[in-house]
Amino acid sequence: MYPAAFEYHAPGSVKEALGLLGKHKDDAKLLAGGHSLIPMMKLRLAQPKHLIDLRKVPGLSGIKQDGNVLSIGAMTTHWQVESSALVKSKLAVMSEVAGLIGDPAVRNRGTVGGSIAHADPAADWPAAMIALGAEMVCEGAKGRRTVKVDDWLKGLMSTAVGEDEILVEIRVPVLPASSGAAYLKFPHPASRFAVVGVAAAVTLDGKGMCAKASVGVTGAGTKAVRAKGVEAGCAGKKLDAAAIEAAASKAAEGVDVQADLQGSVEYKSHLCRVFAKRALTEAVKRAGG
Amino acid sequence: MKLPVKMTINGQSYSHEVEPRLLLVHYIRETVGLTGTHVGCDTSQCGACTILMDGQAVKSCTFFAVQTDGANIMTIEGLAKDGELHPIQQGFWEKHGLQCGFCTPGMIMSVYQMLERYPKPSEELIRHQLEGNLCRCTGYHNIVKAIEWAAEHMPAKK
Ligand SMILES: Cc1cc2nc3c(=O)[nH]c(=O)nc-3n(C[C@H](O)[C@H](O)[C@H](O)COP(=O)(O)OP(=O)(O)OC[C@H]3O[C@@H](n4cnc5c(N)ncnc54)[C@H](O)[C@@H]3O)c2cc1C
Ligand code: FES
Ligand code: FES
What's the CATH code, domain B3-78? Predict the structure, then answer.
């Protein structure tokens, strides 16, 4: 239960935090809500020599509307998203995703940026960000750069954020008219992490056909992925029950499904298909189809 | 290197020098000596260590004491006033919401936040809100009843 000793820093600006990162390099870890990092430190799976706490850095927390985009500061907690009136009115599915993460105490502390940067293979946000087409804004010594979600997730707990960078903002486009989105998961009974979770966003055209479907799958493999087969199966179709079933049957394709304590490859692949079907059905309903 | 920390716990202020790796739960239990807050797991899942920090339920085992400076904390010891149980505590008494009692302090602190956020919770909401508090004894049934009792007996909000 006792983490290895470390030196604690609480910088007052992004610049100062970047300076500390540059100085201590591999020996340093950023600390956001601590709800992935501290459990790993308690089990000594992580033993950083320097912990750089972002809690005093101004401007990293909060949700704003910026044209057609919801801008979410990296240090915004899951509970802030869950309870935000702005999110509920502009992109309610985000509030639903937040409300399914862990438990109330985890949501009070855990941050959106921490989750996206940590990229736990069973985390909820990555699947939702894929379906919603989010962009991540990273800041480094040379300034800011934006990374599309499809270029973000690199592998097991590995993302595009550089060792000398801080994820500062997540930009999520608001859905166009005649759209619906849903996220559904099969939760682990103790942690509530996704054994499998599927996020789907669907836009219908004037004739009620699928103009765009965007689907993210988490939990089953080493990282969340875009379910390209499902998306292709939806495109241009009238998404009735049969079309959804056919498209959802491709949900495990392209996922490097891992067997673990939660289930076999076969079982988890099945869950991918079942949850893709349910998420699509709900998204289409919400789109008015 | 030790760092100074300062916080208010149950209305009393405390300041100490602590190692950065000291978890808040150990600070509360061992440095301050308030042992009502429990440690039930190594994985941040059980909720036995739940306290209120600036009004929010927090797992004090997943928090370093140095992260708190200046925070206002309430633990289970801060609930009863002048020997009189808080309605949530009374609810657990009335409805037999505990057996061994190990999970109870964390349960009660989580319920405190729940009833602040949702004064009239449905059974479904209660169960969803309790997902971070594990109980090995009761099967949760009487805990849900205790919370319903407490919701009915909470003093009206000003
Ligand atoms: C009991 C329990 C249940 C949980 N259940 C779920 C669940 O159901 N679904 C789910 O999705 N998650 C779940 N989580 C994880 C939770 O959502 C975490 O909060 C989240 O994964 C990490 O966010 P954090 O702010 O706590 O990050 P931290 O733990 O502080 O950091 C995580 C990692 O990200 C890095 N990092 C943090 N912020 C930044 C940044 N701004 N820029 C660059 N790097 C950064 C850190 O250096 C660290 O390596 C659970 C956690 C617990 C303890
Ligand atoms: S001791 Fe189990 S969650 Fe804190
Ligand atoms: S009463 Fe024994 S763990 Fe809950």
Answer: 3.10.20.30
Residue A146 burial (C-beta neighbours within 10 Å; 0-12, 13-18, 19+) = exposed
Residue B83: which residues within 8 A CB-CB, separation 6 or more?
Answer: none
Pairwise CA distance, residues B55 & A192, whole Å: 24
Helices A241-248 and A265-286 pack at an angle, to 10 degrees, of 140
Rounded Cα gap, residues A159 and B55, in angstroms: 34
- Domain CATH code at residue A30: 3.30.43.10
Tally of domains within chain A:
3
B48 lines ligand 2 (CB under 6 A): yes
The identity of residue A172, as a single letter, is: V
HSE at residue B64, side-chain half, CA atoms within 13 A, is: 34
| B128-149 residue pLDDT tens | 999 999 999 999 999 999 999 9
List the beta bridge partners of residue B89: none
Q: Which residues, 6+ apart, have CB-to-CB distance to A5 below 8 Å?
A: B19, B20, B21
- The CATH number covering residue A211 comes to 3.30.390.50
Task: Please tell me the distance from the alpha carbon of residue B75 to that of residue B84, in angstroms, as a whole number.
Answer: 16
Closest alpha carbon to A206 in A174, A241, A176? A176
Domain B87-153 sits in which CATH superfamily?
[2Fe-2S]-binding domain (1.10.150.120)
0.90 surpassed by complex ipTM: yes
Give CA–CA dist A251/A263, Å, rounded.
17
Residue A278 Cα to ligand 2 midpoint, Å, equals 33
Whether residues A168 and A183 fall in one domain: no
Contacts B50 to A, Cβ<8 Å: 105
Q: What range defines the domain where residue A136 resides?
A: 63-173
Whether the Cβ atoms of residue A180 and residue A161 lie closer than 8 Å to each other: no
Residue of B3, B17, B62, B125 to mutate for A, most A C-beta atoms under 10 A: B62
pLDDT digits (tens, 9 = 90+) for A177-234: 999 999 999 999 888 899 999 999 999 999 999 999 999 999 999 999 999 999 999 9
Q: CATH 3.10.20.30 residue ranges in chain B?
A: 3-78
pLDDT tens for each residue of A31-44 = 999 999 999 999 99
Asked if residue B112 lies in contact with residue B52, where contact means CB atoms within 8 angstroms, the answer is: yes
